[in-house]
Amino acid sequence: MTDIFKDFITQLAEVNKQDMNRIMSCITTHEIKKNTIILSQGEVCTRFYFLEKGCMRTYYITKEGQEKTRLVSFDNSPVTALTSFITQKPSVEYIDALEDSELLSISYDDFFILLNEIPSWALFYRKMLELAFAFQNRRIEDLVTLSAKERYEKLLKEQPHYIQRLSNRVVATYLGISQETLSRLKSK
Amino acid sequence: MTDIFKDFITQLAEVNKQDMNRIMSCITTHEIKKNTIILSQGEVCTRFYFLEKGCMRTYYITKEGQEKTRLVSFDNSPVTALTSFITQKPSVEYIDALEDSELLSISYDDFFILLNEIPSWALFYRKMLELAFAFQNRRIEDLVTLSAKERYEKLLKEQPHYIQRLSNRVVATYLGISQETLSRLKSK
DNA sequence: AACCCTTTTTGACTTTTGTCAATGCACAGG
DNA sequence: CCTGTGCATTGACAAAAGTCAAAAAGGGTT
């Protein structure tokens, strides 16, 4: 059940059995229905989430009321408004489920207790931050260097599951273009 | 001389005198002339840099030959192609000096030796990653939610030194717009 | 002051993308 | 089997931003 998460941790840092049990003792599981919002703008992100199965989205709503997607997460990845989680300040982002999903979570307090208690957890966290940084780095690179059309083509080539599994509307807000523009790009 | 860096570290993590001396023993200083490139696309970033004084820029060159700026760093901030540094793989980014600058640096090997040797250095690194993540998060948010004009106005309001200290050309590549568009936005 | 070199501004035009509105389509719930 | 409701597509037009070229404005050097 929580094996997916164990594997994920182990890929980043070796954890002995005892430590792993300690980590797992802090974990809560959640079944989330499609369209459920697990974090709203203005709320503090008090838990670290990991998505075992399903699909979730981290997004903003602009003052004009438009949804803009920062990140879409699929099975086997962390899903957290990290900035809010780290600082324990209100989030500017929403997180919701695009499909029925299975989540694990750890509270902020436990997360940081583990950090001091278990060196391999600290290593795991550091590696995760490094990966998150690198991912965002590429995202900025794409947004700054590519046109809408090029961003779509790159996504189609490198992450075809985004386009297969998500609605046009969500893909468009992820690419930072309008639904109509995306629809026109697709029909070529 | 290296006091600026010491202060920077101390703000993120408490370091005792002995550890600080150990850290400082790994440090090299550099005087960099304006327009010097310290890292090119395709090179591995083998040192972690910290900018004590001056101004440096991290940027890409697109296949059309256009410069696109990911980040501009002023006095008292880290300046490193972190993704390349962490993975020790070739960088996609260039780093150059926009002004005469004073840098410190630590080699990759020393950096990771310190990480295992000195817990407060590990904490410093973790906090730095957290800050870098949060910064990039905001950058993505701006790129995704704001128009060129709004990005310019936000920069003018929140980081006026960018506009005062940098050439139009650099500001434009940072905002992801053309020089001419920026010039027109300014004249309103 | 005169020169060169770079940066900035301006104008005319093109391309890209967005907006609004209408239509078609598909699926969930009664 | 009908009927909404939301999503996708298409068309016509508008707005935003880019491109190219030329002129103007600075900045430093002799």
From TrEMBL, chains A, B:
**PROSITE patterns associated with the record:** CNMP_BINDING_3
UniProt xrefs under Pfam families:
cNMP_binding
Q: Which domain of life is it from?
A: Bacteria
Please report the stretch or stretches of sequence annotated as the Cyclic nucleotide-binding domain. 11-115
| InterPro entries per the UniProt record, alphabetical | cNMP-bd_dom, cNMP-bd_dom_sf, RmlC-like_jellyroll
**What is the protein's given name?**
Crp/Fnr family transcriptional regulator
- This protein's species is Flavobacterium hungaricum
